[in-house]
Amino acid sequence: MTVTIVGAQLGDEGKGGVVDLYGDRVDVVARYQGGDNAGHTVVHGDQEYKLSLVPSGAVRGKVGVLGNGCVVNPATLFDEIDSLRERGLDPDVRVAERAHVILPYHRVLDGIEEDAKSDSELDAGTTGRGIGPTYEDKVGRRGIRIGDLLDPDVLRERLEYVVPQKRALAEDVFGVKTGEEFDIASLYEQYRRFGERLAEEGMTVNAGDFLGDRIDADENVMFEGAQGTSIDIDHGIFPYVTSSNPTAGAAATGTGVGPTTIGTGEVIGIVKAYLSRVGTGPLPTELSDDETEEELADQIREKGGEFGTVTGRPRRIGWLDVPMLRHAARVNGFTGLAINHIDVLAGLGSVSVGHAYELGGETLETMPTTTERWADCEPVLREFDGWSEVDWSEVAAEGYDAIPENARTYLEYVSDELDTPIYAVGVGPGREQTVVLETPFE
Ligand code: IMP
Fold this sequence. Notes:
The chain is an alpha/beta fold. 36% of the residues lie in helices and 20% in strands. The protein contains 15 helices and 20 strands. The termini are close together. It binds inosinic acid. Inosinic acid is lined by residues 11-12, 37-39, 124-127, 129, 131-132, 226-227, 231, 240-243, 278-279.
C-alpha cells in the first residue's frame, strides 16, 4: 500500500512530523520532487535532526529514496549522510539514476537571477539552493543526471556542452564575473568522485523498478512531498513558486510508480492551523495591516517557531486561507487531513479564518488562477471563539475528545469545508504530541 503526504498550503505545514508519525509501519519513504530547499526537523527520542534532502524516514531506519523527480546536490546528500553516521545512525538512502544533479553553477545562477528580478519585485525569495536553474536545465534537455556521474566520459561530454553556456549567461547576460563554479576541469573532478562514492555505496537505483518491486512484495511505501500546493510550479502562485510539483500527481511522475497504484492508496493533506510563508508575493490573509496584527503575527511566529529550517528567515504569518485549502483538496484529491499547530493558536481570544474572497464584487470560494488577481482578493473572515492553553501532551494521550471544544469546532469546520476526514491533529512538535484518529497503513 502507498500513502502520499502533501503540503496543502505554502510549505512548512509539518509534513516531516506526519511522515514520522506514520513511519513505523512504513518500509520505504520516497521523495518525488524538490531538493535541498526542503527542510524538515525530525525529533527522535531526545535527539533533533534537521534534514533537507535525506527523507525523514531514514532517521528511523527506513529505506529512503530520492526519486527521479528530485534534484540532488550530492554535496548536501553526503554531508547529511555523514552527519547522521557520526550520530550513530546508518541511513539507507537510494538515489534515482534519472534524478537531475544540482551543480555549483546552478546555485550561483539562482542568486544572480533573484537579484536581477528584485528590481521588479519578481524575485521568489528562493532558498538559493539552485533548484530553479537545475529544473530549467532538465526541461531544456541539457541537465546532468545522477546516472551520468557514474560514467566519466558522459559526465565530461555533458559538462563541456553546458558549462560554457552557463558561463556566458552569467558573464555576458548578467555581467557577473564567474569563478570555480563554472570551471569544467574542477567540476569534472569533483562530480566524478561523487559518482564513484554513489557507486561504491550502491546507492543508485531505477526508482520505478526499486519501488515497484517493494510494492509487489507487499511492503508499505510512503511518498513524502516537499514544499506545498500553493508553491507548485503549475498549481501555485506563479511566479512566487518553487520549480517542481509538490502536488500528489507528481508522486507518480517523480518516482516511476504508476498513478493507478498511487491512486489506490491514501493522499493525506497536511494543513497548518494558520498560514506561514517564507518567500515573497501576495498573501491575502497576512497579519500585517496594523500594529495589532503585527504583534499577533510576532506572537504566533515565536510560539510556532516560524523561522525557515533551511534559511533561518522569519516567516510571514496569516490566518488560515480556506479557498487555498479548497484548491489544494481538488488538485490533490485528499483522502485524509492532518491539521497541525492548533496548540500555537491557544490563548487567543478569537481565531479567524479567510473563509472566502471578495474580488470585484464577486465572492470566490477558491483561488483565482492568476497571482495578480489573488493579490487583489479581500478575505471574507469568519471568526471562531479561541481556546485556552492546556497540557497538550495530556490531550495527545487522551485523544480527540480531550481537545478543547472550540478547537474541535475549528477543526471540524475545516474538515467539513474540504469534505475530508481528519486523520491526525498536531498539538506539539514531538510525534507523541499528536492526536491520531486514523492510521492509514492499518
Ligand atoms: P526555491 O525552491 O529555492 O527555488 O524557492 C522558490 C520558492 O519556494 C521561494 O518562495 C521559497 O521560499 C519557497 N520554498 C522552497 N522550499 C520551501 C520549503 O521547504 N518550505 C517553504 N517554502 C519553500
